[in-house]
Write a structure and sequence with these properties.
Layout (H helix, E strand, L loop, with lengths): L1 H20 L3 H15 L4 H5 L8 H7 L5 H12 L11 E6 L9 E5 H21 L7 E4 L7 E2 L5 E3 L1 H7 L3 H4 L14 H12 L4 E5 L4 H23 L10 H8 L6 H14 L4 H4 L5 E4 L6 H4 L2 H5 L3 E4 L10 E2 L8 E3 L5 E6 L21 E7 L7 E13 L2 E9 L3 E2 L6 E2 H15 L3 E9 L5 E8 L5 H18 L1 H8 L7 E5 L3 H11 L12 E2 L10 E6 L1
Parallel strand pairs: 1-5, 3-6, 6-7, 7-8, 17-20, 18-19
Antiparallel strand pairs: 1-2, 4-5, 9-10, 10-14, 11-12, 12-13, 13-14, 15-16, 17-18, 19-21
Helix pairs in contact: 1-6, 9-10, 10-12, 16-17, 17-18
Length: about 550
């Protein structure tokens, strides 16, 4: 509890100031915007758009155009080559790279100033977490990240996943609470990395799990039965399985931390004998909190978590991307967070107006509860009126400031007959079907089969054995819920322009193999997002369908 008290004491004033700002969000937004424009008025971008003469939000919106990464690319290319004072007056120290799951990877400039502003939000997040969970730091943190440096630009500036960069810049006192050595994340062999994570963490007193994607935790848990006897043997002897494909330098760095632990080995053997299985809820009895994304397409994985971890609290990380951290979760409930109005400047485009050339954007005070919007950000890192391609939902208000939840990527929608199916629609439909039938889906992805009579197909892998009758009942409920979720789809189905959807049960392990291929191809394993709605039907070629059931 000592660290929790320290956090509450040191960050309490900042939290109070943040909460005060939420009572007048537009005043906070005006200050934030004008501060960033003043800092960057003499940059190439600032001079081009006459930042020095901008005196108001209205001036800014009329003078500076909405932008995409392609608009920013020429400026970023100059910064990659070492040019300064291009988008920001601050020196670029790192480029955050997007995961590349929705397009070509993009390099986002990071400066010490922009990193510090993101850290301010992380500190606020830690404050509210410690306030609700004072025992959260009584044990160790199992944090799973990607290694920081993937490569360097022409000017020698490092680039890579920003979660690795953020971890490497944590204070040493905080790093001391993390159970895994940083070198471990450079293990390229998929099985060796996850074995090593489990081998080290299973003998630790873990009180917090932290990783952006909850599927990381479900993957770990599914591997336990495969590794458990070897891990117990390693813990007993203080070794690391010699058959694992681990580079010698990394193996030495890990092994120097290991010691024989006969007591823990006996405990794990006893759990396995009495319970018949090793699960985190048994070997981490003091687990206090799981930190991960909860909104959007990852919701399906949350249904699997209680089976492994029991009724442990889960807190969302907030709307967090390489480009911007846009919200602060103040409780464990739901996936919403308070809009970070003192960190970035925000505009919003109503979801139904996406793609239209109206140029209309809304400010935070104009948002409505229950509506969905494309979020546009201006950041301390040199992005201006930038389309992150994220859709958020307004869940309510904290004082007068919107509470937002990530819903889906903005343009990940499919339509062949006017049905306009979004990823969020299929996630909700499958989630409700799972609730209604009690059937747990470990992974799925919907896609449109474009033949003479098009239909939506659901590649699906179930967690437990499911009968043919249960599968048919499941896809029928999916169809029912999809029609309830999307009135346009319902109308199209009534017109018989689309056939009944089909359930395509895939070979067990196929989704994991897909993930493995993505990692082998260079994607970051902590950020690989298996799409829940594939816009390219060729996605299905990576899967072996063993059973097909129509609704």
């Amino acid at each position: 509890m000592k660290l929790a008290r320290l956090i509450l004491g040191s960050i309490g004033l900042r939290a109070a100031l943040f909460e005060a700002s939420t009572r007048d969000p537009m005043r906070a937004q005006d200050r934030t915007l004008l501060k960033y424009l003043a800092r960057n008025k003499n940059t190439e971008y600032g001079r081009r758009h006459r930042f020095s003469s901008i005196k108001s939000i209205a001036d800014f919106r009329s003078r500076v155009p909405l932008s995409s990464y392609e608009d920013m690319r020429p400026y970023v290319d100059k910064m990659k080559k070492g040019a300064n004072n291009v988008l920001t007056s601050d020196k670029v120290i790192f480029f955050g790279i997007t995961s590349g799951t929705t397009g070509t990877p993009k390099l986002i400039p990071v400066t010490r100033y922009s990193r510090d502003r993101k850290n301010d939000l992380m500190n606020l997040w830690a404050y509210y977490t410690a306030k609700d969970h004072p025992k959260v730091f009584d044990g160790k943190v199992l944090g799973i990240i990607s290694p920081e440096v993937k490569g360097r630009t022409e000017a020698g500036i490092p680039y890579g996943p920003e979660d690795g960069h953020a971890y490497n810049n944590l204070p040493d006192i905080v790093k001391g609470f993390y159970v895994l050595p940083y070198d471990l994340f450079y293990i390229e062999d998929y099985d060796a990395r996850y074995y090593s994570i489990l081998r080290i963490s299973m003998e630790a007193n873990v009180s917090v799990l932290a990783s952006l994607n909850p599927s990381t935790f479900t993957l770990l848990c599914r591997r336990i039965p495969l590794f458990q006897e070897r891990i117990i043997d390693d813990i007993e002897k203080g070794t690391l399985d010699k058959t694992l494909k681990i580079p010698p330098a990394i193996r030495r760095a890990i092994e120097k931390r290991l010691k024989p632990n006969h007591k823990k080995a006996r405990e794990l053997k006893a759990i396995l004998k009495s319970k018949g299985e090793l699960l985190p809820k048994y070997f981490w009895p003091r687990l206090e909190l799981i930190q991960c994304w909860k909104g959007g397409t990852v919701k399906i994985y949350l249904k699997e978590m209680p089976q492994y971890f029991g009724p442990v609290a889960i807190r969302d990380f907030g709307c967090l991307s390489t480009e911007a951290r846009s919200s602060v979760a103040t409780s464990d409930e739901g996936a919403g967070g308070v809009l970070a109005i003192t960190t970035n400047f925000y505009e919003f485009i109503p979801k139904e107006e996406m793609g239209k050339k109206t140029g209309r954007t809304l400010l935070p005070y104009q948002l409505e509860k229950g509506r969905e919007y494309l979020i546009i950000v201006t950041t301390p890192g040199g992005l201006y009126r930038y389309d992150i391609d994220d859709i958020v939902r307004v869940n309510g208000f904290f004082n007068k400031t919107p509470v937002i939840e990530f819903v889906q990527k903005g343009h990940n929608a499919v339509s062949v007959t006017g049905e306009k199916i979004y990823e969020s629609h299929v996630v909700e439909a499958v989630g409700r079907a799972s609730d209604a039938t009690g059937i747990i889906v470990s992974s799925f992805c919907a896609f449109l089969e474009k033949d003479e009579e098009p239909r939506y197909a659901f590649l699906t892998e179930f967690l437990n054995p499911v009968s043919a009758e249960e599968k048919k009942a499941f896809i029928k409920v999916v169809e029912k819920e999809l029609r309830a979720e999307n009135s346009e789809y319902d109308d199209i189905r009534k017109q018989q322009l689309l056939r009944h959807p089909v359930l395509k049960v895939v070979k067990k392990g196929d989704f994991e193999n897909y993930r493995r291929k993505r990692v082998a191809a260079g994607a970051h394993d902590t950020q690989v997002k298996i799409p829940k709605l594939a816009t390219d039907p060729a996605f299905a070629k990576d899967f072996c369908v063993v059973e097909e059931i129509s609704a």
